[in-house]
């Protein structure tokens, strides 16, 4: 039988049942990791994985993922459709078996899927079990079949509801709020994963829509991993172009590798097995690393470029960006979360292929080869300098045996129960030392700003006294000696002031930890302290408020005591409920921020809103024909607005002179706000219509929409004494303990690494050498900033 006919024979006989479903709802973490944000998004990944598996055997070219207004998600593909015929042993439709029985699927033999990401076969049945309801629609056998499930159980029989010539599956589900801490999907988390899948599967087009905000994006990358590497390196300077790439199939395993060196000092290598992001690596990653080192050593020795000593693997990976993707018939993963690949044969295969293919690339590209070897030799010299720096420090007993003098250690010897507060400045450090619990809390004050690890090699980083003290206190070592199991504290808590300097110090510390000790972040040991931003006194009562959001909430509640708010909706005057006031206040606050941001570009909000199209779209670009930039003055006749890039391009074609185009980043957010306001009957051209605040049934205050928030806040502040903290030093030891250090009361923010590619991009933009990406980032996000201390 041909391979094609094997693939086409996908029906109920291919669905094998290994076990019945077991109390998924009672122990969801066993199947999706947790019930927080990560677990919620894992539901979507499990459904998408089924569509990806169809693509990997050539039966799916398009996937549509949609977040609906009601918070539900649908995933639709043009694959073969889940079989709907009667299952031989279960005596019910195969679709029902797939949706309700754990370990049921077509992936346990190799007739239907040679390669699959959903190894355990529990994915879609677990999604069903953890959803309040789930609708499935299958297009197959010229028919459209539908069935509904509620909390994992069949709610309606399978029905044939129509005819179609197409094939595919559409699954729509609503996560169960009895299971999950939150049921609100994050568009950034999903878009990053979908982009990743599109890079890994060049034949696929993935369309992602968020109906809550009119966001829509299409992901399709014909060059696959090559484009992926270029995407990661877009804010860095590559030392050769285009990226090196190879794809080879051997022993039923397909290996793809793309790599490129850049001018940075850190390694960015991402590994995938059957489209699963293996964050903890595995045999394919170790095979790639050994093959790369061997290929470079062989080439370097052949042309006497390396001198007497062999370079280490660490040297060959400085400034390396690489993607390794393998497709394996029988992948051995560690658990359902699939973080690490264990197939031993894959290591040998990837090692051999990488060494041979990369050696061939070096032979054919001598200029690139010499640039790479030159970078490696500099890395080797820096590594040797770093070793000498470590040895020198040991000689001074700073890294080996004796802790830094400024560290106030704790008495408990169990790392799992110990905390290290890394505090900005000696002043705050002194208060923390006095306020702490000496049994389990240690304090390390850092003086001044540490070195920017994004711009420096390890040898230079190790010359910084504060960095050496930090390494010594943590006990993990650094570089090739780093060992996270030697960490002396399982909570590393960054504590800095709430001002700009404090934010900079916190960012420098995070940059150092991310670039030099990433496993500490990946293993969940790094936290950010959340000291209160405000102290509020009302009469004899005193309380602390953690942040601006909570402060606004409290002031809003106080303002609504005895006050009523009305607004004009069409021809009627409508009284706002508390919830409506909160929602409108939030919308108007964003509008106020956007107005300020537009003003910096010389754009005034009200005239700008009049430029909205019939489709509800605002201009995305502005050109001033007098040649002016964002802050220049111009008359309205000199200003030309454009709703898309095509209009802008056509304008420049008809002009001899090119003018600077001002991108209006705020337009998309404005469109979203306008749509929300229209739900209240408020039009974009009615922002002059006043709101009325009736105070204690007596006084009437008339206020414009854009002044509503500030007026409400002022009403809420009456009778309050509010102190806004700028520095930790403003609190005495007792206050620091009560608000920031006492485990019963404090708030800690754990630093997670949900998307490593995006994290690398952010650190490169904010802390790297290139100015233009940082400027662009600041312009895009400036309107989100409030209460900036300068």
How would you sum up this structure, described in words?
The chain has 790 residues and is α+β, with helices and mostly antiparallel strands. It folds into 4 domains: 3-219, Histidine kinase-like ATPase, C-terminal domain (Heat Shock Protein 90, 2-Layer Sandwich), CATH 3.30.565; 225-374, Ribosomal Protein S5, domain 2; 396-531 and 748-784, 3-Layer(aba) Sandwich (Rossmann fold), CATH 3.40.50.670; 562-739, no CATH class. It is built from 25 helices and 31 strands. Strands 2, 3, 5, 6, 7, 8, 9, 10 and 11 form a 9-stranded mixed sheet that branches. Strand 5 and strand 6 (143-150) form a beta hairpin. It is globular, with a radius of gyration of 30 Å.
Summarize the structure.
The protein is α+β, with helices and mostly antiparallel strands. The protein is built from 25 helices and 31 strands. A hairpin with a 5-residue loop joins strand 2 and strand 3 (73-77).
Topology:
Elements: H1 3-8, E1 16-17, H2 29-32, H3 37-56, E2 62-67, E3 73-77, H4 94-100, E4 104-105, H5 123-129, E5 131-140, E6 143-150, E7 153-154, E8 159-163, E9 168-175, H6 187-200, E10 205-210, E11 215-219, H7 225-232, E12 244-250, E13 253-261, E14 268-273, E15 276-277, H8 283-302, H9 313-316, E16 320-327, H10 344-364, H11 366-395, E17 419-424, H12 426-435, E18 441-446, H13 458-461, H14 465-474, E19 491-495, H15 500-516, H16 518-522, E20 526-529, E21 534-538, E22 541-545, H17 548-559, E23 563-569, E24 572-575, H18 578-599, H19 605-609, E25 621-624, E26 639-642, H20 645-653, E27 661-663, H21 667-678, E28 691-695, E29 699-703, H22 705-717, E30 721-724, H23 733-741, E31 748-750, H24 756-767, H25 772-781
Parallel strand pairs: 2-10, 14-16, 17-18, 17-19, 19-20
Antiparallel strand pairs: 1-4, 2-3, 3-9, 5-6, 5-9, 6-7, 6-8, 10-11, 12-13, 13-16, 14-15, 20-31, 21-22, 21-30, 23-24, 23-28, 25-26, 25-27, 28-29
Helix pairs in contact: 3-5, 3-6, 8-10, 12-23, 17-22, 18-21, 18-22
